Amino acid sequence: MALAYIGLGSNLDDPLAQVMRAIDELSALPQTQLAQCSAIYSSKPIGPEQPDFINAVALLDTHLAPLVLLDALQAIEQAHQRVRIQHWGPRTLDLDLLLYGDQVIATERLTVPHPYLTQRGFVLYPLADITPDLQLPDGSRLPDWLHQCPPDGLVKLPSASEC
């Protein structure tokens, strides 16, 4: 089995409900167990003007190969009516394969670690909720990246603190 970290985000059509439903759907994936979830966060959007996002990270223990897992994530997005019209635009649900074990993957369809992993507070801080001293495949450590990425506009939601 491999440990896979999944980033979740939504800013349309009741974003908190979208993220919580997606977590339930992740836990139902075949050959996969939901091991842990981060707190739920609200974050300011990157890119065009749009509503704030709801974000979280889920840790999966899975037998699914990376591309099979990617297909499953995209199927969940489609079930949530995800439409890819505008780069960094609003969305009902965004599921990103952030890390897959200690693998480095660079294909046309998939890049792991996620290319913006170390630049996004809405990914780094939820990751730290799950694995505070996480070591990335390149040997760098999550605490070092957290110091370089302030939590600007990132708010941990107390009413939905654990997904």
Automatic annotation (TrEMBL):
Name of this chain's protein: 2-amino-4-hydroxy-6-hydroxymethyldihydropteridine pyrophosphokinase
Lineage, broadest ranks: Bacteria, Pseudomonadati, Pseudomonadota, Gammaproteobacteria, Cellvibrionales
Domain 7,8-dihydro-6-hydroxymethylpterin-pyrophosphokinase intervals: 87-98
Coiled-coil boundaries: none
The entry's keywords: ATP-binding, Folate biosynthesis, Kinase, Nucleotide-binding, Transferase
InterPro entries: Hppk (IPR000550), Hppk_sf (IPR035907)
Recorded metabolic or biological pathway in which this protein acts: Cofactor biosynthesis; tetrahydrofolate biosynthesis; 2-amino-4-hydroxy-6-hydroxymethyl-7,8-dihydropteridine diphosphate from 7,8-dihydroneopterin triphosphate: step 4/4
Gene Ontology terms: biological process: folic acid biosynthetic process; tetrahydrofolate biosynthetic process
Protein origin, superkingdom: Bacteria
Assigned EC number: 2.7.6.3
Family: Belongs to the HPPK family.
Purpose of the protein: Catalyzes the transfer of pyrophosphate from adenosine triphosphate (ATP) to 6-hydroxymethyl-7,8-dihydropterin, an enzymatic step in folate biosynthesis pathway.
Example GO molecular function: 2-amino-4-hydroxy-6-hydroxymethyldihydropteridine diphosphokinase activity
